[in-house]
Amino acid sequence: MFEQTGNWIAFELLHLSPANALGTAVQFFIMDTLKIFFLLVLIIYLMGLLRAFVSTEKVRQLVAQRPKWQARSLAVILGSVTPFCSCSSVPLFIGFVEARIPVGVTFAFLIASPMINEVAVVLLFTILGWQVALLYVLAGITVAYLGSVIIEWFKPDRWVESYVWDIKIRQQQEQAAFKGHFKERHNFAWNEVKVIVTRIWHWIFIGIALGAGFHGYVPEAWVSTYLSGTENWWSVPAAVLVGVPLYSNATGVIPLIEAMLNKGVPIGTSLALMMSIAALSLPELLILRKVIRWPALAIFIAVLVVAFILVGYGFNFLFV
């Protein structure tokens, strides 16, 4: 439905052509705006509804009673089995933080969720074989687990925005909804949608606009040309940096990765780009900035950039 609507608006109403850069960029902007806001509203509402049915205090106690490694492992597993893109994972991240689950543990979910996608893994299996698909999953799990450990060393709790911690009123509303009927629970969930979307909607538009410009005006041939060849040591870091302005989930970026591999781009460079697009997108960072302050955001970016570069070099070394 969204694809047909986006095509009709971009190519019929605005008289644009998919063959030129402007038409491609506008279509990307419309499609991603519809998709992201739909998913954002849906996920926030469902999370709010879940919190109204399940006491977050009990969830917090359940996690708090477990050793840190078990809680972190559960977060990675939950992230691995949820087919969310990076932007859709942020509302869940906020819900976990508000439930007083340790911030370091929640980062494990935030990293794993967009990077490991069941459909993407199946596509990787069909294109590159089970060995590469399995190694990609293991690499994603390792990055999520160790990355969250490293982030936790810096005590990121101190950089969470104050409004996230200031949840006394929300806790009272949540407890009332938990004890009430479906109408009260619906009202609580819808209020969560209004509060969060009001805070972040303009950042989403900025991130999508930047991603659309890059998507429309930077040709795929340029990416393939300058990122090909294992002798170019800078190709893996460049792939990671190029992936940040682009926005997609792991499944959506598979066709680009396949095209790059067909043009001779090394597998490690291609997968580093895939991880960067899926888990380190600019829209996600702009939304996440409304939850955590710049120092925590900078640490999050640095840890993932280094991790994706190491993964890229590792795959290039293994599959020369």
UniProtKB/TrEMBL annotation:
Locations listed in the record: Cell membrane
Signal sequence segment: none
Keyword annotations: Cell membrane, Membrane, Transmembrane, Transmembrane helix
Entry membrane topology: Multi-pass membrane protein
UniProt keyword Transmembrane present: yes
TM spans (from-to): 36-54, 74-97, 103-125, 132-154, 200-218, 230-247, 267-287, 294-315
Residue runs in coiled coils: none
Main localization, broad class: membrane
InterPro entries found in the cross-reference section: DUF318 (IPR005524), UPF0718_permease (IPR053166)
PANTHER family: PERMEASE RV2963-RELATED (PTHR42775)
Family: Belongs to the UPF0718 family.
The protein, known as: Permease
Originating organism: Thiomicrorhabdus marina
